[in-house]
């Protein structure tokens, strides 16, 4: 059985909703075991035992979240040269842009020699004031559907050994 690892961090709930939607989509593929882990709980053994990765983060000050960065700091060298060629995708919940976080994750994935299998999925919340940025997020159904579709497609690709 193939394994999909979804690693996420979320402070205001938007990225958590995205990751949960992707997990629900991936669950439609019975031959893939999908695991959702908060970045603080995920470790090198999780990375090494997975066949593919979906990384989900809010964009904080133009960067990935510190907690997802911590995950990469703790797992990068233990996994280096041991996961080459495995597939990955990225999801970002951002107030206005999201590309800074995507760029950082892509650089790490390049170092790991991972293979991107989907365009980055960025959900824009348009949160621009401190109150809106810190407010608990509730993402629109169409945005969550996009996340579920990514999870479903990723799991199907793993199941069929397309990637």
Q: How would you characterize this protein structure?
A:
By secondary structure, this protein is an alpha/beta fold. It has one domain (2-159): Rossmann fold, CATH 3.40.50. It is 43% helix and 24% strand. It has 6 helices and 7 strands. It has helices at residues 14-26, 44-49, 66-79, 99-111, 130-134, 141-159; strands at residues 2-8, 32-38, 52-60, 63-64, 87-94, 115-116, 121-124. Strands 1, 2, 3, 4, 5, 6 and 7 form a 7-stranded mixed sheet that branches. Helix 1 crosses helix 6 (141-159). The longest helix has 19 residues, at 141-159. The radius of gyration is 15 Å and the shape is globular. The mean pLDDT is 97.
Which structural traits does this protein have?
seven-stranded mixed β-sheet; Rossmann fold; 163 residues; single chain; alpha/beta
């Amino acid at each position: 059985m193939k394994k999909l690892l979804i690693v996420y961090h979320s402070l205001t709930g938007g990225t958590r909703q995205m990751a949960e939607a992707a997990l629900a989509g991936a669950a439609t593929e019975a031959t893939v075991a999908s695991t959702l882990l908060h970045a603080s709980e995920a470790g090198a053994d999780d990375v090494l035992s997975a066949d593919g990765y979906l990384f989900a983060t809010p964009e904080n000050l133009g960067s990935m979240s510190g907690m997802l960065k911590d995950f990469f700091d703790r797992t990068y060298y233990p996994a280096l040269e041991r996961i080459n060629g495995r597939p990955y995708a990225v999801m970002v919940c951002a107030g206005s842009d999201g590309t800074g976080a995507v760029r950082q994750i892509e650089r790490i994935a390049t170092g790991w020699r991972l293979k991107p299998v989907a365009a980055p999925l960025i959900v824009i919340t348009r949160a621009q004031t401190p109150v809106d940025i810190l407010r608990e997020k509730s993402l629109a159904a169409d945005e969550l559907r996009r996340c579920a579709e990514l999870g479903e497609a990723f799991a199907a690709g793993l199941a069929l050994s397309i990637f």
